[in-house]
User: Which sequence fits this backbone?
């Protein structure tokens, strides 16, 4: 009888312990954070690391042009998105084996909360800002150049910054700043605050049209979104990745409707021409593409679908 009584008490205690453990797990606080924002893949002999600077909410219905709010809403709904779309700000780090090349630098503090994560993610990915040799800028909007500066100082002390001369002549001009409408002045100020320290230090080089930055990394003019918008072609061992910058902003709308433009374009007609050309070539060539505002990591392939296109994102896989 004594043994039976002990056994019943032990069983009750065990069950009670399970209940308490379950209750404790159920009451654990929610963490509400993500893993570091970097994604790595190999392109031939090159290592490509996508770096997330953060996200910002865009309202495509108010920003997209050459369309209607109704069409935008319908296309967003088809992709299970609402009127405000969380939009990634991506940059890309190319390790060629001899050079470390950073394509764009995120916004840092220029665009408010939700961004300024690139430097932390760069370090989480195993690199330091001092290791970057070359920085190539697709264009000088704040969400692409803001990360050049941290705490008012040059953030990449050993890097040379490269950009298309047409963009430099436009955004870095004191005369253009003075003549700009009041609502546009912040864009010029952000570009000048970010680039001028590198210019003063002799660490800025402008190119015209196409230019080889380092072997395997080539700039290609794609003017329209800004006067000197450029894309970058990365090639190694027969594999190719084209970094589009801001050739597109809203995947749910502009892949099925490449003619749709955005209010941020300096020349929307030219931007649409460049987008259509890039989409058609990517679908035909079957190579990798990446874009600053595709959902992170923003890397994938494009295939034609009627008069539009479908983006097929990269599958997660270990780096080999």
Assistant:
């Amino acid at each position: 009888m004594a043994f039976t009584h002990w056994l019943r008490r032990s069983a009750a205690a065990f069950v009670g312990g399970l209940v308490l453990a379950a209750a404790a797990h159920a009451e654990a606080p929610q963490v509400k954070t993500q893993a570091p924002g970097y994604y790595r893949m190999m392109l031939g002999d090159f290592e490509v690391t996508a770096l997330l600077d953060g996200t910002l909410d865009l309202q495509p219905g108010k920003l997209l042009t050459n369309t209607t709010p109704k069409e935008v809403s319908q296309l967003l709904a088809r992709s299970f998105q609402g009127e405000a779309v969380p939009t990634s700000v991506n940059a890309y780090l190319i390790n060629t084996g001899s050079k470390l090349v950073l394509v764009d630098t995120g916004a840092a503090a220029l665009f408010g909360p939700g961004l300024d994560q690139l430097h932390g993610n760069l370090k989480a990915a195993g690199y330091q800002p001092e290791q970057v040799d070359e920085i190539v800028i697709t264009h000088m909007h704040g969400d692409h150049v803001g990360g050049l500066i941290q705490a008012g100082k040059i953030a990449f002390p050993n890097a040379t910054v490269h950009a298309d001369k047409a963009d430099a002549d436009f955004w870095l001009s004191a005369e253009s700043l003075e003549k700009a409408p009041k609502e546009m002045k912040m864009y010029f100020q952000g570009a000048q605050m970010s680039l001028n320290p590198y210019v003063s230090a002799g660490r800025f080089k402008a190119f015209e049209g196409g230019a080889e930055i380092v072997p395997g990394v080539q700039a290609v003019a794609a003017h329209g979104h800004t006067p000197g918008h450029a894309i970058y072609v990365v090639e190694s061992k027969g594999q190719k990745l084209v970094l589009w910058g801001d050739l597109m902003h809203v995947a749910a709308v502009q892949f099925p409707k490449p003619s749709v433009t955005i209010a941020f374009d300096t020349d929307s007609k030219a931007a649409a021409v460049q987008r259509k050309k890039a989409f058609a070539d990517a679908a035909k060539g079957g190579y990798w593409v990446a874009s600053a505002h595709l959902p992170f990591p923003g890397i994938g392939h494009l295939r034609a679908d009627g008069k539009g296109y479908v983006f097929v994102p990269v599958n997660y896989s270990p780096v080999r």
